[in-house]
Amino acid sequence: MELEYASDKVREQCISVKAAKKLFAGDTVLTRNLLARINALENAETIKDIIVQPSFRFHKLGNKKGKNLEGYFAIDVKSVREPWRIIIQPLNEHKEPYEPCNIDEIAGMIRIVEIAEVSRHYE
């Protein structure tokens, strides 16, 4: 699958061990897990390959504190016990968001996702 990044900062956090370690305050386990998740996303044919893996805990996001997250999804960096999530948005072949994003209907076609952020999403 092709990965796009919302910003250079997000890209650096996802591909650089040094930047990822800084994001996770030196936690090497979270750093390794993030890089492994990014690798899994890159090696997937479509987003459906990620959705079917229970350990990723792929889930839809809603509105949070006034922020509209319609069309965004998250996967766990490590596990449900950790607050860290990778926030992604599926993109069409023109690298534009699907509107509406009916993931169940289009999962087998999505070959491009944007990594919006890596964050403590639930805090």
Structure summarized in a few sentences:
The chain has 123 residues and is of the alpha+beta class.
Question: What does this entry look like structurally?
Answer:
The chain is built from five helices and five strands, in the order βααααβββαβ. The model has no long low-confidence stretch (mean pLDDT 93). Helix 1 (8-15) crosses helix 2 (17-23). The protein has one domain (2-120). The longest helix has 16 residues, at 28-43. It is 32% helix and 22% strand. The termini are far apart. The chain is α+β, with helices and mostly antiparallel strands. It has a five-stranded mixed sheet, covered by helices on one side.
End-to-end separation in angstroms reads 29 Å
H-E string:
EHHHHEEEHE
Q: How many H/I helical runs?
A: 5
Biggest β-sheet: strands ordered side by side in the sheet = 1-5-4-3-2
What profile does the largest beta sheet have? 5 strands, mixed
Shape: globular
Q: Strand pairing plus helix content: what structural class?
A: alpha+beta
Q: What are the segments in which pLDDT stays under 50 over at least 5 consecutive residues?
A: none
Notable characteristics:
globular; 123 residues; alpha+beta; 32% helix; 22% strand; 5-stranded mixed β-sheet
List the helices and strands and how they pair.
Elements: E1 2-5, H1 8-15, H2 17-23, H3 28-43, H4 48-51, E2 59-60, E3 73-76, E4 84-91, H5 103-106, E5 112-120
